[in-house]
Each structure stands twice: as C-alpha cells, then as structure tokens.
Amino acid sequence: MISDLHLKDFVDRKALEALQLQRMKETLERVYQNVPFYRQAFTRAGVKPDDLKKLSDLAKFPFTLKSDLRDHYPYGLLAVPMKDIVRIHASSGTTGKPTVVCYTRSDLELWAETVCRVFRMGGVTEQDIVLVSYGYGLFTGGLGAHYGAEHLGCSVIPMGGGATEKQLLLIKDFGVTVICCTPSFFIHIMEEAEKSGFDLKNANLRVGFFGAEPWTPEMRQRIEQGAGIAARDIFGLSEIIGPGVSSDCECCAGLHVFEDHYYPEIIDPDTGEVKNPGEEGELVFTTISKTGMPLIRYRTRDISRLCYDKCDCGRTLVRMDKVKRRSDDMLIIRGVNLFPSQIESVLLSVKGTEPHYQLVVTREKAMDDLEVRVEVTALVFSDEVRGLESLRSEIQSKIKQLIGLSAKVTLVEPGQIERSTGKAKRVLDLRKK
Ligand code: DLL
User: Distance from the CA of 392 to the center of ligand 1, in angstroms?
Assistant: First the structure.
C-alpha cells in the first residue's frame, strides 16, 4: 500500500538491522551461487557467504569496482538468466564502453518504491503534477523519476531534458507543481524564464528534486530564492539502481539512505578500511534486495559521511552528507588539490555572479594554469570597468585565501558558458596526460 510505504523510513533500527542482515545473507548466497565473478572473488579473499554472522562482517568481503563491470561487459555479472531481465540501462563513461546495468521485474518494483519514497519525503502526493526533465533513455534519471512518481499516483509528464522553451510552456500551462532535473539544467530554465519575463515564483511549481551531479548549498540557496521553490537533493547511481538511493527530507540535513535496500559503508579510499560513523571517506554500497545484478561493496568514488543520529524529521534511516565531490574529480594544480565544488562555493558566495562557470586547466612549460571563467549578471557586466575589476579581484583573492591557489579569473557576459541539459561539464582539462 502506498499510504504505508513511508512507514519504512521510520522503522525501529533493531528491526531494520535484522532485515538488513537477512537480506544481506540471501544476497551473498545468491551471487556466490550464480555469478562466477563473485564466487572467484570470494574464494580469492578466503570468504564464504556463511562467514557473514553480523552486518559488520561485510567488511571481510571484497569490493566491486567500476572496472569489474567493464571487464564483464555487458552481461557477465547477471545473477539470473537473461529471460528474467526486463530492462537494461547504461551509463556512459568518459572513455570506452558504457557501464551496463540490468533489472528484473522485482528490481524495477523496488526502484519505483524507493523513488516513490523520495517524493513522499519531499511532501509530494497524488495531487501533484510532476515534470520529469531528466533525460529518458539509457540514462536512469528519466525513467527512474517517472516510475517513482507514477507509483505514487502523481500526474507525470515525461518531458526529458532540453527544449527549455517547451519546459517553460509546460510549467506554465500544465500547472506543474514538481520538477525533476539536474540542478545545472534548472538554473538554465530559471534563466530562460527570466529572459522571457516569466516569474517562476508566480507558477505553481513548489519543489524540485535535483541530482545526478554535485551541487553546493550555495546553489541550493540560489535556486530556492530565485524560483521560490524547495530544492531537494536526490542521489543515486546506475550501478546501484539509479536515482533514489538517498534523498533529503524536510530538514535538508543529510540525505536519508534507503538502507533497507541499499546498505552503505564509508571506507578509506586508500586502505579500504571501514571508517567510523561521522568520518569522511568513500561511499560503498551493497544492494541487498536486487535480484538481476546485485552488487557487493560497490565503490562509488563519491566522498561523504554517514550520520546515525536521529533526524529531527523522526526518520530512523541513516543520513549521508551531500556529495560534493568524487575522489576522481580532484584536480591537482601546481601541487594544490582542488575540487570543482570548492570553486562553485566561492563563486556563488560573491554577489553579481551567475551560477554558470567553467574551470579551464592548461599546462605551459610544465607549469599548470587554472582559469576560472564565470558569468556575471547583465547589470554587473554593463557596469563601468572598475566594478568588474573589483569583482574579479574579490573572486581571485577568495580563491587564493580559501584554496591556496592563484587562478586567473575571467568574467564573461551572460550566456557565454555552454548550458547543459543534463550533467554539467565544469572542467576543461587541456593538459596533455
Ligand atoms: O546520475 C542517477 C541519478 C539520476 C541520480 C537522477 C539522481 C538523479 P549515474 O549517471 O550512474 O547515475 O551517475 C552517478 O553521479 O556516483 C555521483 O558521482 C553523481 N551523483 C548522482 N546524484 C548526485 C547528487 C545518476 N545528488 C554519479 N549529488 C554518482 C552529487 C551525484 N552527485
């Protein structure tokens, strides 16, 4: 029953842990019996499914890496015969072949259930009109949000990404109350709305579920103030299921993980050791209910923390920190470690900037250079040169002060930085590898 679904978010932790243990045992057994890759990996690590007596015993089991999915491309990690697979998605990597993920009918049901819980957490009901502006297709965003909203009984508009004018028309004419898209695309929608003289604050839009890419608290503030809506974070990855592994509740104090299906751990990315609650490290997930392609201890590369304290909303589900960075999106520039989200925080903390920026990294004679290109508001841009110059040096000195890096800052006119309709590309690394 949909009306009871959200009760799962408030379940007593003892009961939850008992359920997790039972599901984890079943999953380990299933992959050991049915997936040669796991049987071999467990044997190499000297473990058998029976060695799991308590949840923390999971640490004895080996990790699964993205490269393992690539090495067993496309169907090598299936735990069921192909006839039981009813859906295939894939995420495109930066290089080479896509990462393939396969779902049984029951996997699709549990996916719809968890995304439905995301919407419930965000106060969405069957009265809502939901615009799905994540891409449909191999990417999991569109169909993931779609089935979750449909499961809840909302009126779902399967728009997909792009065609910003059409998005605005739908928001206006169809009385859209909920939108789902990447935060960078929503910023673009906001901008186009403004250009066309349409004040989103006058629309029925109430809440947005933004994810698929990192976005900072400063970005949340810009969205909430600019569009007059609540901006909720939705996290997920295709290997685990797609969107809906975790999401914000009304407190926006960390994302509740649907840990009755996706069991999280935080590890030290260098040693693989499990870290204590509250410590930062790499997120690792084990799917404990999936049947098609269950993954054991999948290393996400996303950096976060887990907090088991009870949330003010009353939900008992563990919370993970908003993912601001991945261990593999770190840039090293003249020996300084830098994550794009750090630059985003600086840029958006300064008045007069727009949330459109790009980092361009070049190398000349073994010297790395970072150029931060950021758009400024039309008003600032039309200002006399002195205003622009002081904004430029303010940004430059904040970057130097907070990150310790001298960067060249270029202020550009509104509309100069390429807009994304899906995941934004923030970094242009032109250094020869
Ligand atoms: O991006 C699934 C998704 C779709 C999530 C729509 C949320 C909304 P992938 O294409 O496999 O799947 O990319 C997964 O994107 O490991 C993170 O690095 C990043 N990511 C996803 N959601 C968030 C978020 C989808 N809310 C990868 N905040 C993940 C920060 C996110 N990063």
Answer: 32
Q: Give the helix/strand (H/E) hosting 262.
A: strand 262-267
Taking residue 271's Cβ as centre, other Cβ atoms within 10 Å add up to 9
Distances in Å between the Cα of 23 and the Cα atoms of 53, 54, 390, 413 are 12, 12, 59, 54
- Ligand 1 lining (C-beta closer than 6 Å): 91, 134, 140-141, 211-214, 233-238, 242-243, 300, 302, 323, 326
What does the pLDDT read at residue 334?
A: 85
The residues spanned by each domain of the chain are 331-429
Measured from the CA of 209, which atom of ligand 1 is nearest?
8
Looking from the CA of residue 302, the nearest atom of ligand 1 is 18
The residue nearest atom 30 of ligand 1, judged by CA position, is 214
Q: Ligand 1 center to residue 324 CA distance, Å?
A: 11
Span from the CA of 244 to the centroid of ligand 1 (angstroms): 9
pLDDT higher at 44 or 366: 44
Q: Within 10 A of 34 (CB to CB), how many other CB atoms are there?
A: 16
Token pair in block for residue 265: 């751990």
- Which atom of ligand 1 lies at the shortest distance from residue 134's CA? 6
Cα–ligand 1 centroid distance for 386 (angstroms): 40
pLDDT-based confidence at 122, cuts 50/70/90?
Answer: very high
Tokens representing 377?
């508001």
pLDDT of residue 94: 57
Please state the φ and ψ torsions of residue 409, each to the nearest 5 degrees: -110, 125
Helix (H) or strand (E) holding 277: none
Q: Which CATH architecture has domain 331-429?
A: 2-Layer Sandwich (3.30)
Look at residue 411 and tell me whether its pLDDT is greater than 80. yes
Can you tell me which atom of ligand 1 is nearest the CA of 239?
11
The Cβ of residue 191 has, within 10 Å, a number of other Cβ atoms equal to 19
Phi, psi of 243 (to 5 degrees): -65, 150
Q: What's the gap in Å between 211 CA and the centre of ligand 1?
A: 6
Mean per-residue pLDDT for 237-254?
98
Residue 347 burial by Cβ neighbours in a 10 Å radius (0-12, 13-18, 19+): buried
Distance of CA 313 to the CA centre of its chain: 22
pLDDT at 165 exceeding the cut of 80: yes
Residues 381-392 pLDDT 10s = 887 777 889 999
Q: CA 143 to CA 52: how far, in whole Å?
A: 35
User: Which atom of ligand 1 lies at the shortest distance from residue 324's CA?
Assistant: 30
